[in-house]
Amino acid sequence: MISFRHTWQLDCVKCPCSFQLYVTLISILFFTLHYITTWSSQFGDVPEFLPTKQPFWDRPAVLVDKALVEASLNSPHSRASLLAASSQHSGDWLFALPIASCGLKLDDEAVRVAVGLRLRLDLCLPHECHCGSMVDAHGVHSFVCKKAPSRTARHHALNDLIARGFASAGFPVTKEPTRLFRTDGKRPDGLTLVPW
Ligand SMILES: [Zn+2]
Hints:
Elements: H1 2-14, H2 16-43, H3 54-72, H4 76-86, H5 108-119, E1 127-128, E2 134-135, H6 149-168, E3 173-175, E4 190-192
Antiparallel strand pairs: 1-2, 3-4
């Protein structure tokens, strides 16, 4: 120990970088011990061999925070919004490339509404719908109202997107063909045509 200390002191005098490295290592050691002590006091014993995967250390705290957020929600609608937003693949639309020719480019208003629904923000002023129902600030009523003017527009936009997808893949299509059913007069949203 004496010789080591002596050697280190000599090195320290010779090279200031060694002293800085020594201080850094000591700081990291103290921080690690402090972190492990704090972590184990909250989430239990630490394994003998410290896991190297970050999720092992993060997951317990994330679960605690998630429980706190869920406990703070005071309405079934709020809880449903959180569960929907946190469910698997619910945010995949955020990864879609905004390609206008494929119908994947959202305008600013669409993004505003989509983000507002995901975060349960106020989207409009409360008002009375054409159907007589009251629409709250979250505007969710527009998704279930049979008289909402945007309902038809969404239907046509989605139908058009599917039709263009078939056409891009080489399948001739016709949208909403008539006279396919003699019994009820209904027509499907689209029909793929076999050209041979
Ligand atoms: Zn309505």
